[in-house]
Design a protein that fits this description.
The structure holds two protein chains of two kinds. Chain A has twelve helices and no strands. Chain A is mostly helical. Chain A has a single domain, classed as ABC transporter involved in vitamin B12 uptake, BtuC, CATH 1.10.3470.10. The longest helix of chain A has 41 residues. Chain B folds into two domains: 154 residues, Nitrogenase molybdenum iron protein domain (Rossmann fold), CATH 3.40.50; 161 residues, Rossmann fold (3-Layer(aba) Sandwich), CATH 3.40.50. Classes of the chains: A mainly alpha, B alpha/beta. At the A-B interface, helix 2, helix 6, helix 10 and helix 11 of A face helix 11 and helix 12 of B.
Chain lengths: 289, 336
């Protein structure tokens, strides 16, 4: 038992770094994911994760496989897409998800064009899938930095976000500062992705962000508790996923996301709120009375 | 001149065509169009054809032929070619469909024709230690295009007739390649037979000289110093010909995501087998290799070129320079 859980991390430094990275990412994934779910923007994460591609591609052209440059490029384009989307939805009557979809699709097309102009398909694959096993010290620092800034930002805008998550009109009352809070929140989403995409890849990062958050909603209505639960689920997925990848030779990114998927399915069936179990108990009672 | 001849392609048998095409070729001295599937063959064809050929490579320098996705432009290039040079042995899994869809009807040269192919099992015949566990692990490192089709059946055994296509990594095979390309060029330009023969003889001799030099340089090293790891297993022929042991982690390939289990196994192999150096090939993710080097303390021995040349003007932009660069890199890394 100890061997199963402990030995891989004790023997290999790359496993240790992968574990630390996935714990840090899990920590911010919780609150950011839950807030996205509350704001009915579950798929916005998906959109933003694709928006990192053109920036990462430009970064790759300039500096090759250099993590900081890739991260910076990704950060700039993803932020640009997020800000443009929220800007357009502020000015026009279109909802934010619509303009986000429009901008991210354009960014994705530009990204794919840039990558293929550069010639090698392999690079694109690495960007899309990343590799948590390749996390080195630079990557850890990058993740730690992004995690810290994200947590601080979240703490600053927490109250406004909570209010507006229940009632968008609440945010409207705040006027300018409400919009600023909204944009700062998008900034945290972007930061989370930039931290995730190098390690899990753009495709898998969304899985670690959203699945634990959606699962947590089956256990608590209380947002702070749901956030804590989601972080816990995400960290658990990271750890178990890595162990699966180690013992069963599964690719690491998908192993982590699949673990999160199992947690989601379990919560869906036996969670304490709104789960299938609760619904079946309730309908039985209904019939009895 | 060729525009006028082309319609004949579609209606005339190839042999008849050659009789028609040959004199016109001799009369104009316009270089014929040769399309090679990847950069190494393109370079060989240029060396042999010289001014008589204009060579295009479908897969360019530093790119991976295993996962190449042909574009319509590639089909057009192929359709306008007089000679197409491919490696064969299943290396270019995409070429058959491309040739068919492009309507190419010229001379198809399979460069590896006549090469003694290495199977997956005997690829590591050069290894001395018959340790079951290792023999099993190392044999699996080949995930090439042709395997994707039946990757499942390949889970355990190698006895399915699949062969390692990287035959050019043995310079004696390189001579066979050169001869095959020479014959194909002569077949389309019989009038230039002497010129092509002369260039080819010179080139084959240069390959021979390099082959001998390689043997002379590697021979003095004792076996324990000749154990190295690459990120993608394409040096089977090299290993057999020159007595260097190459290890590749099980299931490692340029088109698959690596698992933590694979990494751990490789790290253990390096520790247990006392491997001397790790090499990053010119088209795979270097980050994983750096990770492994950090984990084991084994040197990263620079870049080996396996399936593609480096861009023109750099250290490995021709077949011979590529080979020499590989030898230098290996010696530098493993010499104590």
């Amino acid at each position: 038992m100890v061997d199963f859980f402990w030995a891989p991390f004790a023997e290999f430094a790359f496993m240790q770094r992968a574990l630390v990275a996935s714990l840090a990412l899990g920590l911010i994934s919780g609150p950011v994911g839950v807030l996205l779910v509350m704001r009915r923007m579950s798929l916005a994460g998906d959109a933003i994760s694709h928006a990192v591609l053109p920036g990462a591609a430009v970064g790759y052209m300039i500096a090759g496989m250099s993590l900081p440059v890739l991260g910076l490029g990704a950060f700039i384009t993803a932020l640009l897409v997020a800000l443009l989307a929220s800007g357009v939805s502020n000015v026009t009557s279109q909802r934010e998800d619509a303009s986000l979809a429009a901008f991210y699709l354009m960014a994705l097309a530009i990204g794919v064009t840039l990558v293929s102009m550069h010639g090698s398909n392999i690079d694109l694959m690495h960007l899309l899938f990343g590799s948590i096993l390749a996390v080195d010290e630079t990557a850890l620092l990058l993740i730690a930095g992004a995690t810290t800034v994200t947590l601080i930002l979240l703490a600053m805008i927490w109250r406004v976000l909570l209010g507006s998550s229940f009632d968008p009109l609440f945010l409207a009352q705040y006027g300018r500062s409400g919009r600023v809070a909204n944009q700062l929140f998008m900034l945290t989403v972007v930061l989370t992705f930039v931290a995730c995409f190098q390690t899990l890849g753009t495709l898998m990062a969304v899985g670690l962000l959203m699945l634990p958050a959606i699962a947590a909603k089956f256990w608590s209505r209380d947002i702070p508790i749901a956030c804590l639960l989601a972080s816990g689920f995400a960290m658990l997925s990271g750890t178990i996923g890595l162990l699966l990848s180690y013992h069963a030779s599964l690719p690491s990114g998908p192993a982590i996301v699949l673990t999160a998927g199992v947690i989601y399915l379990t919560s869906l069936f036996v969670g304490t709120h709104d789960s299938l179990l609760i619904h079946s108990i309730r309908s039985t009672r209904h019939r009895e009375s | 001149m060729f525009k006028r001849i082309r319609p004949l392609f579609s209606i005339t048998a190839l042999s008849t065509l050659l009789l028609v095409a040959a004199p016109s070729q001799a009369a104009t001295d316009k270089p014929i169009n040769v399309v090679a599937s990847f950069s190494i063959l393109a370079n060989m064809t240029e060396e042999i054809g010289g001014p008589l050929v204009s060579v295009t490579s479908l897969v360019g320098p530093d790119s991976d032929a295993h996962v190449f996705n042909p574009t319509p432009a590639d089909a057009r290039t192929l359709a306008s070619a007089d000679v197409v040079v491919i490696n064969g042995l299943g290396f270019e899994g995409w070429i058959d469909r491309l040739i068919k869809s492009s309507g190419f009807k010229g001379e198809l040269a399979v460069a590896s024709k006549g090469v003694q192919p290495l199977g997956f099992a005997d690829e590591h015949a050069g290894q001395e230690h018959g340790d079951d566990d290792h023999g099993h692990d190392h044999g699996h490192g080949h995930e090439h295009e042709h395997e994707k089709v039946h990757a499942d059946s390949h889970a355990d055994k190698h006895d399915h007739g699949d062969v390692d296509p990287h035959a050019w990594q043995d310079l004696r095979n390189g001579q066979i390649y050169a001869a095959n390309i020479r014959d194909a060029l002569i077949a389309v330009m019989p009038a230039h037979r002497d010129q092509i023969n002369a260039r080819a003889d010179q080139y084959i001799e240069a390959i021979q000289v390099l082959d001998q030099a390689t043997r002379d340089r590697l021979a003095p090293l004792s076996p324990p110093f000749k154990r190295i790891i690459t990120s993608h297993d394409s040096f089977g022929y090299f290993a057999k010909a020159y007595g260097v042991e190459f290890f590749a982690a099980q299931g490692w390939s340029t088109d698959r995501e690596v698992s933590a289990g694979d990494m751990a196994r490789l790290v253990r192999e390096i520790r247990d087998d006392n491997v001397r150096a790790i090499f990053v090939e010119n088209m795979s993710d270097p980050r994983l290799m750096q990770q492994i080097s950090e984990e084991t303390g084994v040197r990263i021995g620079g870049q080996l070129y396996s399936d593609a040349l480096s861009p023109p003007g750099t250290v490995a932009d021709t077949y011979l320079k590529m080979f020499e660069s590989n030898i230098n890199t290996i010696l530098q890394a493993i010499e104590p």
